[in-house]
């Protein structure tokens, strides 16, 4: 039996203390064992310290992420900064020889993601994990196993929905793709183990609740895989009734249906009803916990992370770039072609 002094504590620095960064700060200090958050950083003066105070925590508060990355008291860099900053922060962490966890998207475009892929390969092993947390959601893990086992025969179609009601007013069409639809773009590639052949994105009638001229909402995303699976995804970030995620996989012999998160049902006033979640964080809280536990378990032993990789981030970025191209040209079909997955990223 190990005594506490024998247990390695992983020293983590978090760059970006916004909504998700604050949530991960709490997770890494209150939920995940054997972690010490030694440093935080946010571009907004006083923001990180205010969150440390709110959570009753102490850590170094940096205003320049370079100082955090180069701090010898930081073993692992967690990047939860704005999307525009992901590339520079991840590259700095890799060049400093430190493990890195980067929230999705890995970077703003495919070229930046490929730069990260090349930088990581210089280490001769994986140093990076991308925060596609649905890979860790138990219901999706079960779904993937059933697809791999041939439970419903070969998949033929997927019918999906990603509705959200909590996105900020300045959310535009680009963010609807690279922040919202990116989850399904990554997830479907993983579930089906099949590359995309083409993609189409087009708008439908705008909701009256959409006041921002820079966003097409709702929108439809249609993808075909090289294996012949057709994917239909509805993206709606101004949904008024709640946070609603749907994923049906239609196969030759049957259908896999993603379960709705169970809520207590009420029988009241001649009605039978259940609540619908309104918060994406609550919907996938357990997945975030499992994700970080797995990541820390590996890097704490100086082992490469095994979750979504930089290559997965690159595949998602190529697809997202094509999605934005299609949307800009009134939903025209854009063909996709990916290089062969490097042996470096093939699961052993």
In short:
With 348 residues, the protein is of the alpha/beta class. It has helices at 19-30, 47-55, 65-69, 83-95, 110-121, 138-148, 173-192, 280-283, 285-299, 310-328, and strands spanning 10-15, 35-41, 60-62, 76-79, 99-103, 128-131, 155-163, 196-203, 219-225, 230-236, 244-251, 255-257, 265-268, 271-274, 334-335.
Protein described:
- The protein folds into two domains: 4-133 and 286-308, NAD(P)-binding Rossmann-like Domain (Rossmann fold, 3-Layer(aba) Sandwich); 135-283 and 314-345, Dihydrodipicolinate Reductase, domain 2 (2-Layer Sandwich).
- The protein is 34% helix and 23% strand.
- It has helices at 19-30, 47-55, 65-69, 83-95, 110-121, 138-148, 173-192, 280-283, 285-299, 310-328; strands at 10-15, 35-41, 60-62, 76-79, 99-103, 128-131, 155-163, 196-203, 219-225, 230-236, 244-251, 255-257, 265-268, 271-274, 334-335.
- The chain has a seven-stranded mixed beta sheet with strand order 12-11-7-10-9-8-15. Strands 3-2-1-4-5-6 form a six-stranded parallel beta sheet, with helices on both faces. Strands 13-14 form a two-stranded antiparallel sheet.
- Helix 4 (83-95) runs parallel beside helix 5 (110-121), helix 5 (110-121) runs antiparallel to helix 10 (310-328) and helix 7 crosses helix 10.
- The model is unreliable at 1-5 (pLDDT under 50).
